Amino acid sequence: MISKTVTALTASETAARWPNTDSTRDSSDRLPVKDNLTRDAVVVVIEDDASVREALKELIESVGLKVRLYASARAFLDSHIPDTTSCLVLDVRLPEVSGIKMQEELSRAGAHVPIVFVTGHADVAMAVCAMKAGAVDFLTKPFRSQDLLDAVFAALERDSAHRKMQQWHSILREHYESLSKRERQVITRVAAGNLNKQIAGDLGLSEVTVKLHRANAMRKMHATSLADLVKMLEHFDSGTAPGRQTQ
Within the chain, which residue ranges are assigned CATH 1.10.10.10? Predict the structure, then answer.
């Protein structure tokens, strides 16, 4: 049964918001259409009130998402962050470690987990602090089911995009590390706007050799154009390609 904390959606509201959701179908087939999410997405609910935990679980599972429940922040921190697209629905006031404190701990640990805060004690300053620290939303109890589900999907979409970007960076670095030292020297200069003749003079090579290194590097990096290559080199963590040589 949905708790008074959560104002349930009517069937018509649910159908309007998520037209592919059918309450008569098996839960494994009821995930609303979200192209950049997977069926493995997990919503972690951290709430010390058992009735609210169960209400949130019922609501979130009603749209086909998997849910993990924890009664405290410490219980979650002692376990592990799901290794898949995920987000937290986190109560602000919790025993031992508050929701805000947990957000700080996750940030210090470099853990990227989008958070949707829920609270029965509205505090503008606290909400502003949480949002500035990266929270997706800050909902005051009682809140509407639709508002929570909207926030959850926004959080999952944010995490999905972050994971895809991390994966792209990892693949990009693998490609870059497959380059020879000379190929790296050539493409970093190409990306800086130098002409083949300038690069040849700078590195003591012939233009033909520069063109060969450039072609090999473009192929290994899977770059389809110079603009594509420049974009790739700009996305390394350091802001420049590792091993970039100065002229």
Answer: 178-234
Mean pLDDT of the chain: 82
pTM of the predicted protein model: 0.70
Q: What pLDDT is stored for residue 236 in this prediction? A: 57
DSSP bridge pairs for 69? 45
178-234 fold: Arc Repressor Mutant, subunit A (1.10.10)
CATH number assigned to the domain with residue range 6-161, chosen from the 4 options 3.40.50.880, 3.30.1330.60, 3.40.50.2300, 3.60.20.30: 3.40.50.2300
- Report d(CA 147, CA 126) in Å as an integer: 19
Say if CB 96 and CB 74 are below 8 A apart. yes
Tell me the β-bridge partners of 87: 43
How far from 20 is each of 14, 17, 36, 158, CA to CA, in Å?
A: 10, 9, 16, 22
Which pLDDT score is estimated for 37? Answer: 64
Q: Where does CATH 3.40.50.2300 sit in the chain?
A: 6-161
pLDDT (0 to 100) of residue 78: 87
CA dihedral 210, 175, 167, 36 (to 10 degrees): 60
* DSSP reduced 3-state for 29: helix
Complete DSSP assignment for 63-96:
TT-EEEEESSHHHHHTS---SSSEEEEEESS-SS
